[in-house]
Write a structure and sequence with these properties.
256 residues; mainly alpha; binds zinc ion
Length: 256
């Protein structure tokens, strides 16, 4: 029997590869540059994600006096669809702040630069995230959800929704969401965040709710244009191991 993670990879590939062939935004190969590196991130990220959830559980178990059981039971008594909507708002607000820090604090940027080194956007590009960044953003996103007391059922629905959106926004697809584009993140929204035009990556910091960027004045989503070049001017190693060590080697170089 195939392990769950391999099954997940096959299912996602079977969904996104045909869709990206039919609805492609840019003409590109399936096995584009960096594909094997990103496939490695897919498998390692699964285990790193689990350890992030354990870290959150441990932190919360040490902070039980900060929990509010009355608030938690009110949150948990709501229908799942309402909890999902609230979880998206709360976690994306937290992610928005964490993501701005990743761009604005120089040593945090060294980790986030790995994600921005993607030069060909597709569904698999979503998983190119340095493990330290993955744990940091996961803690920022999940802590408030656990603290507020969302039910296990709604957290599972949220986890599926959030993973689906992450793959969708990186996918090489031309999609029109109409008015929904303010409430559901799309490739039209997130691709600009990966644009190689220097000032534009400092726009569109949310990953689920573009409305947040509209509220905070960081939105960039022109109706008729899409970026043609992705990536950053820094040179980042192409392989998985090189990318894992990149932020540390850069810090050592700067310290000399
Ligand atoms: Zn970013
Ligand atoms: Zn991205």
């Amino acid at each position: 029997m195939l392990p769950e993670i391999v099954k997940g990879f096959i299912i996602l590939a079977c969904i996104f590869i045909p869709l990206e062939r039919i609805l492609f935004l840019h003409k590109q190969k399936i096995f584009r540059l960096g594909w094997a590196t990103d496939a490695t991130y897919f498998f390692t990220g699964h285990f790193i994600g689990r350890s992030g959830a354990i870290v959150v559980t441990v932190i919360l178990s040490l902070m039980t006096n900060l929990l509010n059981p009355e608030l938690q039971s009110k949150v948990a008594s709501q229908p799942v669809w309402l909890q999902l909507a609230e979880a998206v708002i709360v976690s994306d607000m937290a992610y928005y702040i964490a993501h701005r820090l990743l761009h604005e604090v120089p040593w945090l940027w060294q980790f986030h630069a790995v994600h921005h080194s993607i030069e060909h956007m597709d569904w698999l590009a979503a998983v190119r995230v340095h493990p330290c960044e993955q744990i940091f953003t996961q803690i920022c996103k999940i802590m408030p959800l656990y603290w507020l007391g969302f039910t296990k059922e709604s957290l599972v629905v949220y986890a599926v929704y959030s993973a689906a959106i992450a793959f969708l926004i990186h996918s090489n697809m031309k999609l029109k969401f109409g008015i929904l584009k303010w409430f559901v993140a799309t490739p039209q929204f997130h691709h600009w965040h990966h644009s190689k035009i220097p000032q534009i990556p400092n726009k569109n910091f949310a990953v689920q709710l573009p409305l947040l960027d509209l509220l905070f004045g960081t939105i960039y989503m022109p109706a008729q244009k899409m970026p043609h070049q992705y990536g950053i001017s820094d040179s980042i190693p192409a392989g998985y191991i090189g990318q894992i060590f990149f932020p540390f080697s850069r810090r050592m170089k700067n310290a000399r």
